[in-house]
Design goal:
Elements: E1 2-4, H1 18-28, H2 43-48, E2 50-51, E3 60-63, H3 71-75, E4 82-84, H4 106-117, E5 120-125, H5 135-150, E6 155-160, H6 173-197, E7 201-204, E8 217-222, H7 226-229, H8 236-251, E9 257-260, H9 263-273, E10 280-282, H10 297-302, E11 310-313, H11 322-334, E12 342-345, E13 362-366, H12 370-379, E14 382-385, H13 394-401, E15 406-408, H14 414-418, E16 423-424, H15 429-440, H16 443-457, H17 462-475
């Protein structure tokens, strides 16, 4: 995608005609008329604020120069090959500027086209941004940020997705959209787009089986192999689709290179899938939470956040091992040593088979904004993270980067991410109770864990992740 920040000429100031509005709504794909979210903006109103796409071979959206760019349009700008946004000052680094007075006309266009042909065209799968808000989506969004900062002049990286959000839909519509994405768009529509845009590299960032024309080199980001280690964590549909994907990964040379988000995941890929270590590369994730953008005290008070609390962040499923924290709080009650409340941030609590009801001291906050999550990390006594299996462990890195002490177990990828900064506890109720009580009762200990965590977190950056990824792109063409 080329994002042009120069001022848009005023000649495109007339309102779009009816056909143009319908085409823009169809291209944007959001918001849909069948959305259940009552707050979704009117798609016809969105279309009337834009002008028809320019006549060219690419999907383009040109926005009025004399109007502000709405957030809903800006959020979906990455779905177009060229987006002209008004009033943003100097162009971004690594992006070709629009033709100036001396380059106007066909000659300037030829020079720009020649520059584009010399760049490697990479299609980056961004479908996860439309179906989940979990760690995979954060990784892909962070990678995009790092690639923009890197601004590699030899790479033309364009997002590839069916830009229809699953959020806000009820079943069975949500399931039908998932089926369409996986069974129709990925194998049929995506290859046509790749062929039309002349993609040389396809970067798969999820288990979505996107088809590609012959000659397109494939790169895969592999997050973990929990599907093989703990399949009960996944719904039936995901178990079927992801196992099929992993079988294809293990049984052929389909992917030229595989990027693993941790050395632990790379070792798992060799042990469980038999992949050649020479095909693997490690590109760690990073934290993109902004300490300056934390929610204020009034917003936290509205959520009922107490002065002292422990924090858990993650999806509520068996692998996160909330059962251990439940046993820990029960053990504390039996010993007459009440613990501060545990605030749980993650998807809706549905209970996990065999674990029973949550402890009375637990407070479920559901899914929260980044601003609220940042503030909770900054104020928590510690992050309690007893997960049994992680491909990376993003909550651990987020907590450390924001000065929150971490209590976790020395399992899977967590020592790789945490280094020596966390308090590592054995995965038993007694060990976690001792750790929680020690951290809650010792301000000096919390300060030491906080300082060590901040230092460890500085070893990770999205720019470094992007640098490794860009080198992988270059190695397959």
């Amino acid at each position: 995608m080329g994002l042009r920040d120069a001022q848009l000429p005023q000649r495109h100031s007339q309102p779009a005609d009816h056909a143009g509005r319908r085409r823009i709504v169809r291209r944007l794909r959001v918001p849909d008329l069948d959305r259940t979210d009552a707050l979704a903006p009117d798609p016809r109103g969105l279309a009337r604020r834009a002008v028809p796409p320019r006549a060219s071979g690419h999907d383009q959206l040109v926005y009025h120069a004399d109007r502000p760019v709405p957030d809903d349009l800006r959020r979906h700008a990455d779905q177009f090959s060229d987006v002209f946004l008004p009033g943003h000052g100097a162009r971004r680094a690594g992006v070709e500027p629009r033709a100036g007075p001396g380059e106007s006309g066909r000659g300037g266009g030829r020079r720009r086209a020649a520059g584009m042909r010399s760049r490697m065209r990479v299609a980056l799968d961004t479908n996860c941004l439309y179906v989940t808000r979990a760690g995979v989506a954060r990784y892909v969004r962070g990678l995009q940020t790092g690639l923009r900062e890197l601004a590699a002049p030899d790479l033309d990286i364009r997002p590839l997705a069916w830009p229809v959000e699953n959020f806000g839909y009820r079943q069975p519509v949500r399931a039908l959209k998932t089926a369409w994405r996986e069974l129709v768009w990925a194998p049929l529509a995506a290859p046509r787009r790749l062929r039309r845009e002349g993609a040389q590299v396809l970067h798969h960032t999820s288990a979505l089986a996107i088809g590609a024309p012959p000659g397109v080199a494939r790169v895969l980001t592999l997050y973990d192999l929990a599907m093989l280690r703990e399949p009960r964590r996944f719904r039936r549909w995901h178990r079927w689709s992801r196992r099929r994907f992993l079988r294809s990964l293990a049984g052929s040379g389909r992917f030229a290179r595989v990027i693993c988000i941790s050395r632990f995941t790379a070792d798992e890929a060799v042990a469980l899938l038999g992949l050649d270590p020479r095909r693997l590369e490690v590109a760690h994730g990073a934290c993109d939470l902004d300490p300056a953008a934390a929610a204020d005290s009034a917003e936290l008070a509205g959520l009922g956040v107490p002065d002292e609390f422990f924090l858990f962040v993650g999806s509520l499923e068996p692998g996160k091992n909330l059962a251990l924290l439940r046993q820990t709080y029960a053990l504390a009650d039996a010993a007459g040593a009440a613990l501060p409340p545990l605030l749980i941030v993650g998807q809706r609590w549905r209970g996990v088979a065999g674990e029973g009801a949550p402890h009375p001291a637990w407070r479920y906050l559901g899914r929260q904004s980044d601003a609220v999550l940042t503030a909770l990390y900054q104020r928590a006594l510690a992050l309690a993270f007893p997960s049994r299996y992680e491909g990376f462990g993003l909550p651990v890195l987020e907590a450390m980067s924001l000065g929150c002490p971490v209590i976790c177990s020395r399992v899977a990828s967590l020592p790789e991410v945490g280094g020596e900064a966390p308090w590592y506890a054995e995965a038993t109720p007694a060990a976690y109770l001792a750790a929680l009580r020690a951290v809650a009762g010792d301000a000096r200990l919390r300060a030491e864990l906080s300082a060590q965590g901040r230092a460890q977190s500085r070893r990770f950056s999205w720019r470094e992740c992007a640098r490794v990824t860009a080198d992988v792109y270059r190695s397959v063409v």
